């Protein structure tokens, strides 16, 4: 979420599991939010190589027609080379 807030597409893509269900974001793509601020992160469940994490974030959209909002997202993470990587977004 912090990499998304900074608009660091390369960093976001580096956090994706290579065999996961999420696609890389193309370089030069415009992200849909001006800023994303992490409010809370909760580990819902965890085993040795898999985890489910719920994040509550405050989103400020790029469009002036949309208001700031709070979103709750849930992510599946799996280990790759000993590091946690994003496997899939479970709520969307």
Short note summarizing the structure:
This protein has two helices and four strands, in the order H-H-E-E-E-E.
Explained architecture:
The two termini are 16 Å apart. A hairpin with a 2-residue loop joins β3 (69-80) and β4 (83-89). The model has no long low-confidence stretch (mean pLDDT 92). The chain is mainly beta. The protein has a four-stranded antiparallel sheet with strand order 1-2-3-4. The chain has helices spanning 2-6, 9-14, and strands at 33-46, 50-61, 69-80, 83-89. The protein is built from two helices and four strands; from the N terminus they run ααββββ.
Assembly classification? single chain
Shape call: globular
Strand content: over 45%
Q: Report the biggest beta sheet as strand number plus sense, adding barrel if it closes.
A: 4 strands, antiparallel
Query: How many angstroms separate the termini?
Result: 16 Å
Q: What is Rg?
A: 14 Å
In terms of structural class, how would the helical and strand content be classed? mainly beta
- The helix fraction, in percent, is 10-25%
SSE string: HHEEEE
Mean pLDDT: 92
Per DSSP, the total helix count is: 2
Name the poorly predicted regions. none
Strand order of the largest sheet: 1-2-3-4
Give me the count of strands.
4
List keywords for this structure.
92 residues, mainly beta, four-stranded antiparallel sheet, 2 helices, 4 strands, 49% strand
Helix and strand topology:
Blueprint: H1 2-6, H2 9-14, E1 33-46, E2 50-61, E3 69-80, E4 83-89
Antiparallel strand pairs: 1-2, 2-3, 3-4
């Amino acid at each position: 979420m912090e990499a998304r807030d900074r608009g660091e597409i390369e960093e976001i893509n580096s956090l994706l599991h290579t065999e996961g269900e999420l696609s890389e974001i193309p370089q030069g793509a415009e992200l849909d939010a001006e800023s994303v601020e992490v409010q809370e992160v909760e580990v819902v469940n965890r085993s040795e190589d898999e985890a489910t994490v719920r994040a509550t974030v405050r989103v400020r959209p790029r469009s002036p027609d949309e208001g700031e909002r709070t979103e709750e997202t849930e992510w599946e993470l799996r280990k790759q080379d000993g590091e946690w990587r994003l496997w899939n977004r479970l709520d969307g």
